């Protein structure tokens, strides 16, 4: 194992999160992510993977713990009143794409892309439109700029959603099972786009059930179950020769046959 | 008995004037009523218990009483309470606006509720401020989704507006009734009056289907 001395990009410390008094989902999660890393999170259904990403995006309150980004804590619940503090300025450097299409249906593709840059950063329409068009071309969507989301295939919608997030120049991208709702023949086109981003060393955290994709994109794999990190290591280890019994059971089940 | 529809021609102008009153009253109340309805719809989904309670009482009261009773109350009781004379038009506008506000608030409430939480997740993930979330994401979708039902609400209002004839407003119904009484030709006159209402209301109900098929299908919302 090589030691890297660079400061972590993301540092999650003893993160606890429950929905109501009875559903404890995250039970003391610790994750460190270095700059340029592509972390794939795998684990059984209901294990809290989506919850983890939603917390990192500031979409959920937490019970306790903290998350820092670039050395700066931006989500924490340490004060006496247990209120979740979220630094919205830091949060703006994180982008997220969801499993279910979340494009704005009443806006065309290009309007979806420029809404946030114009309204959040005060960028001019002309400049945002130019950047958006270039991004769409890059993702093979140049001809769809004026289409409405309902006129796109699932794969196209997800590519637009990725482009929309990239318009804000995120320093970290979160992908939550972005191909799970797609027809099998549309999965590759979306994964290609994410691989393209990986080639430009965009830091990302990816939740996926697609082990082929996990293997190809991950620089590190985390196996999460029961609200804690069970195993954390390079893809060859976690996917190929897991050390932990529970990881092995899970990998066996999703791959069907041992490698 | 011989029917003679040509007598209608003698009263063309009176009928046209009555129709104008009906249309004017409807249009004013559509604009005022929909605006009121939107805010009441928001109030009914608001976090404040007081706002929710007040708006619910208003909506349920107006939905649970006959429009005719509401009209009579506003024409005859409201001036007594306020101590001011209200013109026929003013009273008619107040009564039908309150009626329209109550029914459209339900329309807006349903369309606001139908916007999924994932739209808000996307707003937060994009860092959109609350104001932008409301004006650029929620409001346009709520209004688009509400359009078909709102059009039906407008047709209802247009038809219900005939009730103002009962309190002496010279709308289409009132004029028709007068002509019918004076000429003793109820069949011809009232049939034509019904036809006029129908010729205006029917295209509007068709428009509902058209909007649903064209606009909403294109956006899938
Ligand atoms: N809003 C919510 N309210 C209550 N319980 C919730 C909520 N969201 C998630 N849960 C519960 O929390 C647990 C973890 O959910 P989560 O979606 O994070 O799991 P996951 O690992 O993403 O699963 P999957 O692989 O099926 O997507 C589940 O038991 C789920 O039922
Ligand atoms: Mg999930």
Automatic annotation (TrEMBL), chain A:
The protein, known as: ATP-binding cassette domain-containing protein
Organism (species): Rhizobium fredii (Sinorhizobium fredii)
Major subcellular site: membrane
Superkingdom per UniProt: Bacteria
Transmembrane segments: none
Annotated signal sequence range: none
Pfam families linked: ABC_tran (PF00005)
PROSITE patterns with a match to the protein in the record: ABC_TRANSPORTER_1, ABC_TRANSPORTER_2
Family the entry assigns: Belongs to the ABC transporter superfamily.
Record bears the keyword Cell inner membrane: no
GO molecular function, one term: ATP binding
PANTHER family: AMINO ACID IMPORT ATP-BINDING PROTEIN, GLUTAMATE_ASPARTATE IMPORT ATP-BINDING PROTEIN GLTL
Keyword Nucleotide-binding included in the entry's annotation: yes
Topology of the protein relative to the lipid bilayer: Peripheral membrane protein
Lineage per the UniProt record: Bacteria, Pseudomonadati, Pseudomonadota, Alphaproteobacteria, Hyphomicrobiales
Entry's localization field: Cell membrane
Alphabetically ordered keywords of this record: Amino-acid transport, ATP-binding, Cell membrane, Membrane, Nucleotide-binding, Transport
From TrEMBL, chain B:
The family this protein is said to belong to: Belongs to the binding-protein-dependent transport system permease family. HisMQ subfamily.
Parts of the chain that traverse the membrane: 25-43, 64-82, 189-211
Taxonomic lineage of the native organism: Bacteria, Pseudomonadati, Pseudomonadota, Alphaproteobacteria, Hyphomicrobiales
CDD domains: TM_PBP2 (cd06261)
ABC transmembrane type-1 domain mapped to chain residues: 19-208
Function: Part of the binding-protein-dependent transport system for glutamine; probably responsible for the translocation of the substrate across the membrane.
Key words of the record: Amino-acid transport, Cell membrane, Membrane, Transmembrane, Transmembrane helix, Transport
Organism expressing this protein natively: Rhizobium fredii (Sinorhizobium fredii)
BP-aspect Gene Ontology terms: amino acid transport
Name listed for the protein in its UniProt record: ABC transporter permease subunit
Keyword Cell membrane: yes
Highest taxon, organism lineage: Bacteria
SUPFAM superfamilies assigned: MetI-like
GO cellular component, one term: ATP-binding cassette (ABC) transporter complex
Location(s) in or outside the cell: Cell inner membrane; Cell membrane
Membrane topology: Multi-pass membrane protein
A UniProt-annotated Pfam family: BPD_transp_1
InterPro entries: AA_ABC_transptr_permease_3TM (IPR010065), ArtM/GltK/GlnP/TcyL/YhdX-like (IPR043429), MetI-like (IPR000515), MetI-like_sf (IPR035906)
Example of a GO MF term: transmembrane transporter activity
């Amino acid at each position: 194992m090589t030691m890297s001395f660079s400061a972590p990009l993301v540092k999650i410390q003893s993160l606890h999160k429950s929905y109501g008094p009875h559903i404890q989902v995250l039970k003391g999660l610790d994750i460190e992510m270095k700059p340029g890393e592509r972390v794939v999170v795998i684990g059984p259904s209901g294990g809290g993977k989506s919850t983890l990403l939603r917390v990192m995006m500031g979409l959920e309150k937490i019970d306790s713990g903290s998350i820092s980004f670039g050395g700066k804590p931006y989500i924490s619940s340490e004060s006496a009143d247990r209120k979740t503090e979220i630094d919205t300025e830091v949060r703006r450097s994180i982008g997220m794409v969801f499993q279910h299409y979340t494009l704005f249906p009443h806006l065309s593709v290009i309007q979806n892309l420029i809404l946030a840059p114009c309204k959040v950063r005060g960028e001019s329409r002309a400049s945002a439109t130019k950047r958006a068009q270039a991004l769409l071309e890059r993702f093979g969507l140049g001809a769809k700029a004026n289409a409405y989301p309902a006129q796109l295939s699932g794969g196209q919608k997800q590519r637009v959603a990725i482009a929309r997030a990239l318009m804000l120049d995120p320093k970290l991208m979160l992908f939550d099972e972005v191909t799970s709702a797609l027809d099998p023949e549309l999965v590759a086109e979306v994964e290609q786009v994410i691989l393209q981003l990986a080639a430009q060393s965009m830091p990302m955290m990816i939740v996926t059930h697609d082990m082929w994709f996990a293997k190809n994109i991950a620089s590190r794999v985390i196996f999460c179950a029961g609200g804690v990190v069970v195993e954390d290591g390079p893809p060859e280890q976690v996917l190929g020769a897991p050390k932990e019994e529970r990881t092995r059971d899970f990998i066996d089940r999703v791959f069907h046959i041992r490698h | 008995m011989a029917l003679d529809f040509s007598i209608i021609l003698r009263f063309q102008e009176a009928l046209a004037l009555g129709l104008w009153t009906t249309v004017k009253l409807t249009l004013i109340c559509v604009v005022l009523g929909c605006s009121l309805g939107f805010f009441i719809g928001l109030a009914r989904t608001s976090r404040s218990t007081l706002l929710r309670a007040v708006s619910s009482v208003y909506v349920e009261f107006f939905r649970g009483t006959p429009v005719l009773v509401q009209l009579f109350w506003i024409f005859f009781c409201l001036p007594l309470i306020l101590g001011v004379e209200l013109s026929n038009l003013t009273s008619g506008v107040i009564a039908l606006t309150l009626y329209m506000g109550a029914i459209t608030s339900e329309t807006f409430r349903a369309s606001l509720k139908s916007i999924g939480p994932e739209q808000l997740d996307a707003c937060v993930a994009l860092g959109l401020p609350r104001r932008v979330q409301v004006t650029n994401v929620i409001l346009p979708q709520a209004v688009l989704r509400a359009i078909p039902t709102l059009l039906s609400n407008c047709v209802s209002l247009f038809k219900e507006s005939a009730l103002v004839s009962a309190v002496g407003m010279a709308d289409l119904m009132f004029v028709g009734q007068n002509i019918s009484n004076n000429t003793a030709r109820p069949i011809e006159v009232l049939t034509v009056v019904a036809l006029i209402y129908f010729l205006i209301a029917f295209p509007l109900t068709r428009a509902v289907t058209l909007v649903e098929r064209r606009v909403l299908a294109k956006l899938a919302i």
